[in-house]
Design brief:
With 296 residues, this protein is of the alpha/beta class. The protein contains eight helices and 15 strands. The strands form three sheets. The protein has a six-stranded mixed beta sheet with strand order 3-8-9-10-12-11, with no helix packed on it. A six-stranded mixed beta sheet has the order 7-6-5-13-14-15, with helices on one face. The radius of gyration is 18 Å and the shape is globular.
């Protein structure tokens, strides 16, 4: 795939039937930032949604060892319940702050290409990285005045360092950009650019930051899906689906009734939280097995 190629379309759903436009794509519904013509073939699979099991992983932030630990815990739970097909949804923020963004993206890109039942969603940090790596870098208007992806509090410098790109405080941005475009593999740039924004499965709706309450799920804005905080976090409304998200760190993955927050602070060096969801119930996966998520 070349740089700037449009994202592949996700599955569609109607009357309880999931239509997957790509063989091997984890069963569910994904939405992408942009679309293209439908492929000429598709597969149809009927699903009893109450029986769905889904695994999910919170924000990763460049910690490959934590990601692999989370995957190992999921594999142990798969073995215990005899389920080799349930998808693993990665909630976004693959990059920034941690030491090995390159390793994280490489691991996830190769796994999905090899047919692993993985869904990898786009987080706000992933979009920041992808936009910087475009032929002419874009700035995210949601950032505070004076902040860019290269700001030390955002995490871009650690990400670039994982690709061998380092710079001094007063370096020109165009020089950093040129070196980054040279050293970050095209496959990684394409992978980030084409990440979907959401994934739906059973009673669950997965996205990075959350949703704007009162807006239908199918009409959510990309900026909200990647950046929203208080308007979503403070809402006790019934959103219909159970919303699974990250973006806003908490001490531990927590069930709030209408949503589950999976961001347990990996961006600040805390462990990643892998969970298993069955219906609207969820458990944290640990070395000792399943532990019910705390409810608030």
């Amino acid at each position: 795939m070349t740089r700037g190629a449009p994202a592949r379309p996700g599955p569609f759903a109607f009357h309880g039937v999931r239509l997957s436009l790509f063989r091997g794509l984890p069963l569910g519904v994904v939405t992408y930032p942009f679309t293209r013509k439908l492929e000429k073939w598709f597969s149809v699979r009927r699903v009893k949604e109450s029986d769905m099991r889904t695994y999910a992983i919170g924000d990763i932030h460049g910690y490959l060892s934590e990601l692999k630990r989370a995957h190992a815990l999921i594999e142990a739970d798969r073995a215990a319940c005899g389920d080799s097909e349930a998808p693993i949804v990665h909630i976004g923020d693959l990059c920034d702050r941690g030491p090995d963004t390159r390793g994280v993206i490489d691991h996830l890109a190769k796994g999905t290409q090899a047919g692993e039942p993985w869904v990898v969603l786009k987080g706000n940090h992933d979009r920041l990285m992808a936009w910087f790596l475009e032929p002419f870098p874009r700035h995210d208007p949601y950032l505070l005045v004076g902040y860019t992806w290269l700001h030390e509090r955002i995490g871009g410098p650690e990400t670039l360092a994982s690709y061998g790109v380092t710079f001094e405080e007063r370096e020109r941005v165009f020089r950093i950009h040129d070196e980054a475009r040279e050293k970050v593999p095209d496959a990684h740039i394409d992978f980030l650019a084409n990440l979907p924004l959401t994934y739906e499965r059973g009673e669950c709706f997965f996205c990075h930051a959350g949703i704007r309450p009162g807006v239908p799920l199918a009409e959510q804005d990309e900026m909200d899906l990647l950046w929203i905080r208080e308007e979503f976090l403070d809402s006790t409304a019934d959103h219909g689906a159970l919303i699974l998200h990250g973006h806003s760190p908490v001490k531990r993955a927590t069930h709030y009734g209408n949503r589950i927050n999976l961001d347990s602070g990996a961006g600040y060096g805390d462990p990643i939280s892998p969970v298993v969801i069955e219906g609207r119930e969820a458990w944290l996966l640990t070395e000792a097995g399943r532990v019910a998520l705390p409810r608030v």
